[in-house]
Design a protein that fits this description.
about 525 residues, mainly alpha, Serine Threonine Protein Phosphatase 5, Tetratricopeptide repeat, two-stranded antiparallel ribbon, 23 helices
Length: about 525
């Protein structure tokens, strides 16, 4: 924590990278002070734009998001992160430390910018552009604390890293989860009040805040407020489901589309490292590893996830590569591989019967993840890819989520509902997937729909967790977490202590207070 706090204090120097030709580009802030900078809207927006970029989010979205959200929830199979599949992770786990570090660094950046902009206002800075920028920071900080509360439960809350560093007292306690969630909600409420009705594509608006508030209210089982906020987003008419579900995750041309309320903004680059989307190699099948694109399939769909799809659900093909899946425009070729080249010459076909040296695909579950895999590279008929990097944004909140939040919040604690508005929202999501509408829905229906709709987007663990330990245990123990060759595998040792991740061991060494019982943040 001490290192993260000091890093946050260097935020002006850390925001110097030129990120892209669009809104996340910013000039150097070397020597920046509130007196000589942040004197116009362009300078202020340049500063906040960095909070959207892949750089501060990298250590979360690259692998930690997959390990926590999808491997732990049973959606993904992984030999590398088997500790998350078997719930044997510890406070020394790499992904635990990576997520924690990324989250608190982003919070640190947001804190410094909030405090800097508030100071600039006292010096006569124009509130017309400073207040919306503060609201952007409130959204980012509130969203991160929401993630922290769901991931670790009780956790530290920090709002002024400068004051902490100057005091020399780094013994920061954990606060109760309910207080962390309350703090997150208050930040999102400030964001809702301060953000504009609309902005350029990719920038946050007050509807982004309303949507994230709806998600937080649902997590808290505050169904009335969850429904109200989701309804405000729906009735705004500003968002819609896109017809090209697959392209939403694989085509950079679809970044910041009509379905996106909040996305991490990536660019097609590997300099500096983390500006590009790094999910491509971890999901791509090894038979699509080319001179342009890395693909080593660290994460693949679990057998249990594959069994979840209903017959006829188009999201299966849009999300998963299985035997027969094809992309005629992809035509990868390799040096000194005549059988491979012959097989791929007429277009890519996912084939689990051929030998791997002849272009076959035979991983542990005989399937690969299509979401966020941009392909073998532009020279071979795919999207532009540069080694491990693509230019696809990572979507953290989209309109389909708002629709399903509305349906679930309307259902609330009832056994089922036939409410017309809830069904309309729910069936919009199903209809896009080519499935028939339902005339009544239960919580099981909603959870199924959420699982297949947001598969491999890092969300399903939180859907399991928010149902409580008894239900979570029942869900997990029914899942087949095995492989084709190894056979079925079931978890029988899931305990309540595994509902939240442990605080990283290195953080406790620096701050022993983190190893003590949580305390109230609010009086």
């Amino acid at each position: 924590m001490k290192k993260i706090l000091y890093t946050a204090l260097l935020v002006p120097a850390l925001l110097v990278a030129s990120c892209s030709p669009d809104f996340i580009e910013r000039p150097s802030l070397s020597g920046t002070t509130t007196g000589n900078y942040y004197n116009n809207a362009e300078e202020v927006r340049a500063a906040t734009s960095t909070l959207y970029s892949g750089l501060p989010w990298r250590n979360f979205e690259s692998r930690a998001q997959d390990a926590i959200g999808d491997v732990m929830s049973g959606n993904m199979f992984s030999y590398t992160d088997i500790e998350f599949s078997e719930f044997t992770y510890s406070s020394a786990s790499e992904r635990v430390g990576a997520a924690w570090g990324a989250f608190y660094k982003i919070i640190g950046y947001a804190n410094v910018l909030i405090n800097t902009f508030e100071e600039k206002k006292t010096q006569g800075g124009n509130a017309a552009y400073l207040d919306p920028a503060i609201a952007e920071c409130n959204f980012i900080r509130g969203t991160i604390y929401f993630y922290i509360a769901r991931t670790w439960g009780d956790a530290p809350i920090i709002t002024d890293p400068g004051a902490v560093a100057l005091s020399g007292n780094f013994n920061i306690p954990r606060y109760f989860q309910k207080d962390v969630l309350r703090f997150a909600l208050e930040d999102l409420q400030k964001a809702e009040a301060g953000l504009p009705e609309s902005d350029v594509p990719g920038r946050l608006t007050k509807y982004s805040a309303k949507g994230m508030m709806a998600k937080l209210y649902l997590y808290n089982k505050d169904y009335a407020n969850a429904k109200a906020k989701a309804q405000e987003v729906i009735q705004s008419g500003k968002y819609s489901l896109v017809s090209d579900y697959y392209g939403m995750f694989t085509k950079a041309s679809m970044n910041n589309n009509a379905e996106s309320l909040f996305s991490i903004q990536h660019q097609f680059s590997q300099d500096p490292w983390g500006t590009g989307n790094l999910k491509n190699p971890d999901r791509g099948p090894s038979n699509l590893n080319t001179s342009e694109a890395s693909a080593w399939e660290m994460y693949v769909p679990s057998l249990d996830m594959l069994s979840e799809y209903e017959f006829g659900d188009l999201r299966r093909r849009w999300s998963v590569m299985e035997h027969g899946w094809s992309k005629p425009e992809w035509k990868p070729q390799r040096a000194n591989a005549p059988k491979y080249n012959e097989f791929m010459a007429n277009g890519y076909v996912y084939d689990t019967t051929r030998a791997t040296d002849e272009g076959g695909a035979q991983n542990a579950t005989r399937a690969n993840i299509a979401k966020y895999f941009a392909g073998p590279g532009k020279a071979y008929g795919g999207e532009p890819v540069l080694g491990q990097n693509s230019g696809n944004n990572v979507v953290l909140l989209r309109y389909a989520d708002i629709l399903l939040i509305y349906a679930e919040a309307t259902l609330a604690d009832a056994a089922s509902t036939s409410d017309a508005s809830a069904l309309a929202a729910f069936n919009l999501v199903r209809n896009r997937a080519g499935l028939p509408a339902k005339t009544s829905i239960t919580l099981a229906d909603v959870m199924h729909e959420r699982r297949v709709e947001f598969a491999f987007e890092g969300d399903y663990w939180y859907d399991i967790q928010r149902q409580g330990f008894a239900k979570a245990k029942a869900i997990i123990e029914k899942q087949n977490r095995g492989s084709v060759e190894g056979g079925p595998k079931y978890i029988t040792t899931f305990t309540e202590s595994k509902m939240y991740l442990p605080i990283p061991a290195g953080e406790i060494v620096q701050d022993p207070e983190l190893n003590k019982p949580a305390v109230p943040y609010y009086n």
